[in-house]
Amino acid sequence: MKTNFKRKILVIGIFFVFLGTSATTLGGKVQSFWRDNFDSYANDQFLDGGADDGGWNGWGSVPAAGAYVRDDYHYSSPYSVEISGASDLVHEYTGYTSGTWTFMTKMYIPVDFSGMSYFILLCDYDGGGSGTVWTVQVRFDSDLDVVESELNGEQAPIIYGEWVAFRCRIDLDSDWLQIYYDEILLAEHAYTDTYQGTGGGSLNIAAVDLFANSATSIYYDDIEIGSWYIPIVIDAGGPYSGYVNQNISFNGFASGGVEPYSWAWDFGDGATASVQNPIHAYSVAGNYTATMTVTDAESSTVSDTASVTIFPPPPALKIGAITSGFGIKSYVKNTGAGVATNVTWTITLDGKLVFVGKSSNGTITTIVPAGKEAIKAGFILGFGKTNIVISATCNEGVSAEASTSGFVLGPFILRVK
User: Fold this and answer.
1) How confident is the model at residue 29 (pLDDT cuts 50, 70, 90)?
2) Sequence spans of domains, the chain
3) What is the pLDDT, as a whole number, of residue 296?
4) What is the DSSP string of 164-187?
C-alpha cells in the first residue's frame, strides 16, 4: 500500500511551511515566488491535473487522487483545498536548487478530525516511481493528538478548530531544514537526510504532496514558496536640534534586506539628500520632521522619521571696556546674529574695605544684533585695592564676563587696569 511506502521509505526530513496571506515570518521577510490561495478556482472544483487546475494533480497523475476546492473553511476568502479520503494531491516545482527558501501554508484541522494525514515535501519526484525521494514527512495523528516529523519522531500537540501556520525554512546552500508548527520549531536537521537516516537526498525542492491517507478532512490555504531574508531595520537617529543656518549632521542606519541600499532624506523644509549621513542647515526656526527612506537591492522600502528643532540664531555677548572715575562704567554688546533677551548683568568688587556698592546689577530687556547697552555700578564708597568683575547672561543661555583691578578712594575708582 502507498501509505506504508511513504511511512517506511520516506527520505529526508521535515517539511515545509504554512503561513497565511502575510509574508512576514519570525524575524524574516518572505518574497513570494509561487503562491496559490485557491481563490481563483470555482467552489467544488476538483483539482486532478486539468488545464484549469493550477498545476495540481493526483499522485502519479492519477485523477482520482485529486482534491476539491471548498468554501467550508478558508484563511483567505473564499476558498481552501480539502484533503480527505483518497486525496493525494501533488504540485511539482522547478528551479529551486540553491538559496534559502520558505515553504509555507495555513492549515485547518476540524475538531472532529479522524485518522492520520500527511504533509510531504519531495526533493525528487518521478510520478511516484523509484526515483521519488521524500525530504519531509509530517504526520497529523488524531489517535495520539500529535503532529510528528517522522524523520526523527519530534512531536507537538495538534491544534484543532483554528487556522495554524505550518512552514519549513530550507537552506539549500548550507543543507539545513527547520520545520515550524504554529511558529514553534518542531524539528531541524540536514535537508538531505533521508527518512531511513542514510542521507543521499538532493538539494532540490521538487514537489509537495498533501496525502489524506483515508483520513477525514484537513484544509490548506495560502500555500507559498518564498525566498527568505532578514527584514530591513532602519533608524533615522535623532532627535536633532540646532540654530538657524547651523549645519546639522544626520545619521542613518540600516541592516538586513539585500545590500546595497539607496538612501533618501526629506528634511521637512523642501530640501532632500540621497546619502546615508547628510548635513543640512535650516533657514527658518521651527519644528520639522525629517524622513529617511531606505530601499534595498530587492526594491523593499522602509521609512523612519526623526524630529528636528531649529532655534533662532543665538546672540553672543561681550563686555566692553571698563572705565573708572566716579563709579564704574561699561557696556554689554551683542556680537551674535540673534536677539539677546532679558540680559542680566552684575558688577562686583571684592575689596575688603569697600563699604558700600560691593555689588550692583540690572536687566536689559533686549539687545539686538550689533547693539550695545551701557551699564554702571551704583554708588561706591571704600578705600584700597579691589578686583572688579562684570558678568552678563541672557535667556538664550549665552553669557560673558570681564575683569580688572583698581583702587577705591572714597567714591572714586582709580588706576583701573
Assistant:
1) very low
2) 2-228, 233-311, 317-414
3) 86
4) EEEEEEEETTTTEEEEEETTEEEE
pLDDT digits (tens, 9 = 90+) for 127-184: 988 889 999 999 999 999 999 999 889 999 999 999 999 999 999 999 999 999 998 8
Integer Cα distance of 373 and 320 in angstroms: 10
Rounded Cα distance, 115 and 85, in Å: 10
- Amino acid at position 155, single letter: Q
What strands lie across the sheet with 372-376, from one edge to the other?
A: 317-319, 329-334, 372-376
Cell of 354: 569697600
Q: Measure the CA–CA gap between 84 and 417, rounded to whole angstroms.
A: 105
Which CATH number, 2.60.40.10, 3.40.50.360, 3.30.1130.10, 3.20.20.70, labels domain 233-311? 2.60.40.10
Domain 317-414 in CATH: superfamily?
Immunoglobulins (2.60.40.10)
Distance of CA 115 to the CA centre of its chain: 43
d(CA 249, CA 10): 60
Q: Please tell me the number of Cα atoms within 13 Å of 53 on its side-chain side.
A: 23
Could you read off the pLDDT of 232-287 as tens digits, one per residue? 889 999 999 999 999 999 999 998 877 789 999 999 999 999 999 999 999 999 99
3-state SS assignment for residue 380: coil
Half-sphere exposure of 111 (CA within 13 A, CB side): 2
* Fold of the domain spanning 2-228: Jelly Rolls (2.60.120)
Report whether 188 contacts 174 (CB < 8 A): no
The one-letter amino acid code at 169 reads: R
Which residue in the block uniquely carries the three cell numbers 532679558? 342
Extract the C-alpha cell encoding 381: 564708597
Domains 2-228 and 233-311 share a fold: no
Specify which residues 131 forms β-bridges with: none
